[in-house]
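Worked problem 6 (solution included).
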Amino acid sequence: MRELILSIVKPLVDFPDDVQLETFEEENQVTYKLSVNREDIGKVIGKRGRVAKAIRTVVYAAAGAKHHKKIYLEINE
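Solution. The predicted structure is:
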């Protein structure tokens, strides 16, 4: 899942080396916290959050087939 998120986000941003993804796994959920350069935050969120919603949709769909845990993707500013 980590590779999927990074492969979606890195081409979108101007500073791909600044992309960081932390994973927090609990009993029934996995939370991914995505951090990008301040200048790239708008590109990852998009107008009205459309890009962020699209990223989450792809990640949740992929996770539903592989994991039996709830997946969350948080985008940190």
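Discussion: The chain has one domain: 2-76.
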